[in-house]
Amino acid sequence: MGHVPRVRSECHDRSVLVPAHPPLRPERARGHLDRGGEGERTPDGDGTRRRFPRLPGASGGVRVSAPGKKPGWLKVRAPSGERVDRVRTVLARNGLRTVCREALCPNVAECWGAGTATVILLGGICTRGCAFCSVAAGTPEAPDPKEPERVARAAAELGWRHVVVTSVTRDDLPDGGAGHFAMVTRALRRMAPEAAVELLVPDFAGDGNALRTVVDASPDVLAHNVETVPRLYPVVRRGADYARSIGLLWRASKMSPGLPLKSGIMVGFGETEEEIADVFRDLFGAGVRSVTVGQYLPPTRNHLPVTEYVSPDRFAALAAVARAIGIPKVLSGPLVRSSYKPA
């Protein structure tokens, strides 16, 4: 008899991530970042006050338009070269999936050319199916207990110094796959001890015990992406919850105060600049000190359409907003992805 997935149901005695009063910014009057030509003030990390820079080329938020041909700054070369071939060969030999291929990442040439990749755990089927993602949704197979060793073997063979490990969402598993993340981390410590381990985890359906399992594995970086602004969650991230994601990051910061936390957001869904700044505030309040901001690119015509191609100058301005709020590490650009370069 094959594996029968068991979807977890909500229960009153389960440890949940979101506290009674999650660390979300209080509701306040909405307004553009550029108020009175000076911008809105916000506290930074040391309690002082800074002003937001003006976002160039925008007056009230991200404009919704019908983009046609992709602009030149989104053009990338196809992956090729000896190092790319080596990464492809080693990953194939170990039966590993990567974000580079599964999520159609535009940085595959750069990352594979540098001899690195982001590994996807727990199969190629997700139990949710977000509107922006190219990973197939459906009923996954049982986890492969040998996968952690294969990941570590590939990392050792390729000499990776920073290993990013993520997974599809597995709501069918009792712990959401947390134990698998922990096993991969331990295998990497044993077989590739020089490598820093960054875990990019799902929300574990709000299970605090699952998060504890991952935190106790002592990764070098723990990442969880909010992906978009809360208003767009019902469309962009069906089955996810913004407060739950912020709560996960906040709870992780309390479980391990010294653990570096990272998150990512995409633009081009129709969000406003003020909404993006609010997300930065929430992430900072949850303990996140490393953020990525990138352009949403629909994997196919059947996915959620893009509303705008944001210019590199505006990405730079968004990075300045995040830093003004107090987030010191910000990668912001059209081709930036959450697993792009070390945190």
- Average pLDDT, all residues: 77
- Largest sheet features: 8 strands, mixed
Count of distinct structural domains: 1
- β content, as a range? 5-15%
Q: Spell the H/E element sequence.
A: EEHEHHEEEHEHEHEHHEHEHE
Approximately how much helix is present in the residues?
25-40%
Number of helices: 10
By secondary-structure content and strand pairing, the structural class works out as alpha/beta
Assembly type of the shown chains? single chain
Named at the architecture level, the CATH assignment is Alpha-Beta Barrel
| Number of β-strand runs | 12
Envelope shape: globular
Distance between the termini: 43 Å
CATH structural fold name = TIM Barrel
What Rg do the Cα atoms give? 20 Å
Strand order in the sheet with the most strands:
3-4-7-8-9-10-11-12
Give start-end ranges of low-pLDDT stretches: 1-16, 26-66
CATH homologous superfamily classification: Aldolase class I
| CATH top level class name | Alpha Beta
Write the layout of secondary structure elements.
Blueprint: E1 41-43, E2 49-51, H1 82-93, E3 97-98, H2 99-102, H3 108-113, E4 118-121, E5 125-126, E6 136-137, H4 147-158, E7 162-167, H5 178-191, E8 196-200, H6 208-216, E9 221-223, H7 233-236, H8 242-255, E10 261-267, H9 273-285, E11 290-295, H10 312-325, E12 329-332
Parallel strand pairs: 4-7, 5-6, 7-8, 8-9, 9-10, 10-11, 11-12
Antiparallel strand pairs: 1-2, 3-4
Helix pairs in contact: 4-5, 5-6, 6-8, 9-10
What is the structure about, briefly put?
By secondary structure, the protein is of the alpha/beta class. The protein has helices at 82-93, 99-102, 108-113, 147-158, 178-191, 208-216, 233-236, 242-255, 273-285, 312-325, and strands at 41-43, 49-51, 97-98, 118-121, 125-126, 136-137, 162-167, 196-200, 221-223, 261-267, 290-295, 329-332.
